[in-house]
Amino acid sequence: MGRFAVPEFEYSRYTNRQLLVVPLAVLAMALAILGGWYLVTGSPVAVGVELGGGTEMTVETTSSEDEVAAAFDPAPSSVQAVQAQENQYIVQFTSDDEDALTDQAEANLEPVDDGSVVQQISSVSPAFAQQAQRTALFGLAVAFVGMSVLAFLLFRTFVPSIAIVASAFSDLVIPLAFMNVIGIELTLGTVAALLLLIGYSVDSDILLNNHVLRRSGSFYESVHRATRTGVTMTVTSMVAMLVMAISAYALGIELLASVGIILFVGLAADLMNTYLMNFTLLRWYKFEGVAR
User: Fold this and answer.
1) Taking each helix axis from N to C terminus, what angle separates 16-41 and 158-182, rounded to the nearest 10 degrees?
2) Global pTM?
3) Strands 118-124 and 88-93
4) pLDDT per position as a tens digit, 173-211
């Protein structure tokens, strides 16, 4: 049986500046995407009906996707075909007037086998959506602050602790920007995926810091021991998330597919940030910073 082996990376061949340039460049690109999205839409990320308010309707019709979009006035904010079900579309609106939208769907779209066009409809009022959005963002903020406090309590020194915080921040920002690029909306389900990423991030970063600062052996020996465990753990999780995303997409379970994609991208970002950004700050701290 084959065994996954983590190769030993020759960190000593590269300067701190060379190692930092990649994670910082990716982080800067992600921040630019979020900033540009905010300037265009007024929000750094696209929010779903749960957090933005409006109506989500599932229709079954022989009409095309373009005809579905043209059947409503005002036009829907998005129309998506259901992968696992032929002739079904998920249509989202900023309006929460279910009766008017149902009437337009039944009047303007061709049903399948003389059945009902509207299969399912649900709406969220703007006031409730704003409250849910505040609660979700507050939960993310509390989790991030709690993780930061834990890091400072564990290591009680500024540079190793701030390395964990910086890595976790980048692990959140990069998937958020990626969500905008591929069209995944921020919902209660995707917020849960981001909360999971905070846990994954702090786990791998604390593993690296603990090996370097508290275990015996030279700096590079400690890094390699932590890398063997951390990379194996993270890559295994990435494979599991990718399989989940592909399976959910094939079965038409959109939320589960989105969660799998977000976690896969976030874990890939965590590999980069932990073993480039966090490592670089630790090496500077050990050899050039206050620990010298």
Assistant:
1) 50
2) 0.85
3) unpaired
4) 999 999 999 989 898 889 999 999 988 888 889 999 988
